[in-house]
């Protein structure tokens, strides 16, 4: 799971990180200029535009999310972000781990919402009230409530009927996911993951993406980036953080960081320091 990094507060915008929990991160952001370069993350991004026009390119089309409209981005889908007018935009969003949604789906593939903007006035605010409460602590009961509520919302928005039959070998997939998350800097061979899951590598790859919205290798990279960000926040130099997180070098970390978050590690850390000041 990744928190989308803020832009430089002085020039690009401002981001506030709300109370979160395991698999749940809340953000409120304001931008007056280009917010994010094209990037993708392995979480659902579900939010509401609060002011201005939020414009982004998604699945080959330019989209616009107006105040009160809801935004839903599927895991691993490339997108960017910028103001749709000269007045900038402000939004609140929750990033939710697909594994949390999956727990409410009982092994069915993740719902895919073809149109990322829900245009019904007020629908986003009504359905996301709990998930978007920036100050509400996320204990285990609240985490379950948010996960099941967002799963229902995603099913409704995608037109997916609830299935009574589990289509995926979820216990096997969770074993693989947990193994990778426990040691993202390690290199887990396909043969090792086959033995762990009891699935051949091709079935594992297909089912992993259907269950969690991304590939095992991409999931590993995102967990490496999570580790790198924690090290950076603690003041670890970029080169050292890159190696501890399992990247070949600082350049490798920087390339993967920008692909995931739309900005460089240096810009992200400078923005955190500026915000803290």
From TrEMBL:
| Family annotation (Pfam families) | AraC_binding (PF02311), HTH_18 (PF12833)
Residue span, HTH araC/xylS-type domain: 174-271
Keyword check for rRNA processing: no
Q: Per its UniProt record, what InterPro entries does this chain match?
A: AraC-bd (IPR003313), AraC_XylS_family_regulators (IPR050204), Homeodomain-like_sf (IPR009057), HTH-like (IPR037923), HTH_AraC (IPR018060), HTH_AraC-typ_CS (IPR018062)
Which keywords belong to this entry?
Activator, DNA-binding, Transcription, Transcription regulation
The record's section on Gene3D superfamilies has: Homeodomain-like
Q: Name one GO molecular function term.
A: sequence-specific DNA binding
Coiled-coil regions, chain positions = none
Question: PANTHER family annotated for this entry?
Answer: HTH-TYPE TRANSCRIPTIONAL ACTIVATOR RHAS-RELATED, TRANSCRIPTIONAL REGULATORY PROTEIN
Query: Can you say what this protein is called?
Result: AraC family transcriptional regulator
